[in-house]
Amino acid sequence: MASATAMTAEQHEMRVGPHSKQTGDLVHDGLVLIEGTVVGRIHAREVRVLTGGFVEGVIHADVAKFMGCFRGSVRAVTVLIGAKADIQDADILCESMGMEPGASFEIRSARRLAPNAVPRFDYQASMARLNPVASGQNGYAPRRGNLSVVEGGAGRAQPGFPAADPRDRLAPAMRG
Hints:
Region (Disordered): 1-22, 151-176
Distance between the termini: 51 Å
Number of strands: 7
Strand content: over 45%
Low-confidence stretches: 1-9, 134-176
Pfam families: Bactofilin
Oligomer: single chain
Helix content: under 10%
Shape: globular
Organism: Methylorubrum extorquens DSM 13060
Protein name: Polymer-forming cytoskeletal protein
Order of helices and strands: EEEEEEEH
């Protein structure tokens, strides 16, 4: 079996660029690279907060690697904290954790769980958990795609997960 960090042909990469800000829920069936800012919940196979990246919220992944800033909670099979990472006010639940010398961190709680205690990433289960459909409401079938609504960057909304209001898909500068 391939390692948890190895990319397969089925996995896709999603990038939040250095001048981008993503808010809300982000579900991706593959690798998420964060060089900008994400505020909200991230569910993915692998999440990498790169140097210059900032995440405030919740990460649920098979592998979480930190080289940038993070505030919030992580539930992952493997957590790796790089030398330039800045982890503040964090709760970490994982099966294994590695840390390079020089990392800056202030962790409220870190708990090592038994093997297979953290459920592995499941795209459909994550979508169902983050987008519940109440009885009598119109739902939508989840699609795999890139959600890159950008605030303050040079990007624009791209097809992704349908929003409740079509205007929510537009970047703030494009809203009427």
